[in-house]
Amino acid sequence: MTAPSSDPILRVRDLRVHFGTRNPIEVVHGLDLDIAPGEVVAVVGESGSGKSVTALSVIGSAAGERARHGVGEAARPGAHRAETR
Question: Where would you say this protein principally sits, based on its record (predicted)?
């Protein structure tokens, strides 16, 4: 196996996800993540720790209108950069 490239295929910076409108609750708190080509990543945690919300947020599918995303960014080299607000 070759060493992973220094350029990630996915870079996530300061991902924050909130649920609720009246008294929003932050359920993902400032996540940073880099995934290099050929790298295998597992997100592990207790039930309710935000694994699914994190994955859905990165691909832009988190709970429709119920989820609000704080300032952060997810970028894929070779694709357009998506900023969350």
Answer: membrane
